[in-house]
Amino acid sequence: MLLFGLAALSFKPADAQTASQKPKLVVGIVVDQMRFDYLTRFEAQFGDRGFKRLMSDGFECRNNHFNYVPTYTGPGHASIYTGTTPANHGIISNNWYNKFEKQQVYCAGDTTVASVGVDGPAGQMSPHRMLTTTITDQNRLHTQMRGKTIGVSLKDRGAILPAGHTANAAYWFEGGDEGKWITSTFYMDQLPKWVQEFNASAKAKNYLKEWNTLKPIETYVESGADLNTYEGGFRGKEDAVFPYDLEKLAPENGGYTLLKSTPYGNNLTTDFALEALDAEALGQDSDTDFLVVSYSATDYVGHNFGVNSKEVEDMYVRLDLDLERLLDALDKKVGEGNYTVFLTADHGAVNVPAYLSANRIPSGYFDNRAFATALNEFIVSEYGKEDLIEDISNYQVFFNYENLQEAGVNPEELQKKIAHFALQYDLMDKVYTRAELNQANYTSGVAALIQKGFNQKRSGDVFLVLDPGVISYSRTGSTHGSAFSYDTHAPLLFYGAGIKKGKTYKLTEIPDIAPTIAALLGIEFPNGTTGTIITEVLE
Ligand SMILES: [Zn+2]
Question: Which of 414, 439, 471 is the endpoint of a domain?
């Protein structure tokens, strides 16, 4: 019996099996600023057909982390899709000091291309600063460019970086007076008819309506009181409490840009993604297509109201319905079993430090400007020179090498002196230098995350790490960027064709996603991949 079984197995043509399991469509979903614990904290609020469908019928990696700093949107999206970290893909932050151009640059900014669908610079974007390929690029290469890639996100970087260098299109939302989905000449010279029609419809306008809680507010027991001192709120409304009259608030809050800071921004993202699914005929032939969708409104709401707010709870109650709508449409249009979904986040977020402090948890606020002034005074007192430092940004100190040479200052000596000075400074936890990062190979802890975020060519010379729970931010709302668990622990769910049911508590890391999807599709890894296949996930 056993021998017969083995023989039968060995004669089964492996290619046929692979072909039948290969999904027609991969849908990559990134939820901006989604902490892992939102899955558990809001679980009782979720229906069966959204998050819970992915969790119970798919595979859940419950110990999934970012393995580098800074934990921001640009690096997050790049790392998910390139299977590596800023050390290799080069997206070292959202904005960073470019020492070669001697100016701040934006991760998706590209002045060599023009806006499409809008006047002005909002469309001057491309993935050109990302140095390595994405899983979406590899799929295009593998299928002789027959498999399509379409990227959709309210944020330009949330659409552009995942869609890669070879995307058919990436679309993002321009607020202000426009309320339109736009793109850049990097992809096309004019918007397709379906995008023009979407923009001409009243869809965006209709969302400028009242935002109240979807369910009775007294049922939102997994968040703090609606009225508290830890929330920002909108201009033109005294308290950050429900309901919000968006039509009335829009003129004072950036017009259509206001939608980005409400759950309706995510609704609009789903509306647009479903139009793309139809109009681009995604998942309709044997070449795998990619639809990459990033839900950005979650990040704006978290920044404004903080991770413990009623607004965030309502946001996730509503996002659950967006996922249900997306999955139902995929069932209908592509067919259950013909598509694969993964869902993750681009970073987490910290509880509002003022709230943590009120509950006696160590936390605080760091004044970047005061630190820069103090550091400058220290350097002047040591060397009698003002201009040895060119820039301080993203908790990195960038040296001016020409001035160092002129003053006869050894860069490694200056790194050490600054490290010593910074460690005496209040709320500073750790400091690393370029020399250390070039010489050592850190395998654990914050140092390992700093090193994986350290790009030899693009990064600075000294790296500053603040204490746990300390941010440089307003006293209301949440932010992110650190190597601490609240910023690194992110959900990771796989579902659909080729995916097992199950879960693991084994450590998985964000760069593991791309090689896992590559293995599922039988295609080459992105060229800078440092992650590994999560074998438990695959059938
Ligand atoms: Zn953010």
Answer: 471
96 found inside a domain: no
CATH code where residue 313 lies: 3.40.720.10
Q: What is the pLDDT of residue 21?
A: 67
List CB-based neighbours of ion ligand 1 within 5 Å: 299
Residue-wise pLDDT tens digits, 134-156: 999 999 999 999 999 999 999 99
User: How many whole angstroms from 85 Cα to the centroid of ligand 1?
Assistant: 18
pLDDT in tens, 310-324: 999 999 999 999 999
The per-residue pLDDT for 527 is 98
**How many domains is the chain partitioned into structurally?**
2
Whether the model pTM is above 0.70:
yes
Neighbour tally for 226: CB within 10 Å:
17
The verdict on whether 73 is a catalytic residue reads yes
Q: Supply the range of the domain harboring residue 262.
A: 6-59+113-348+489-537
Q: How far is the CA of 97 from the centre of ligand 1 (A)?
A: 19
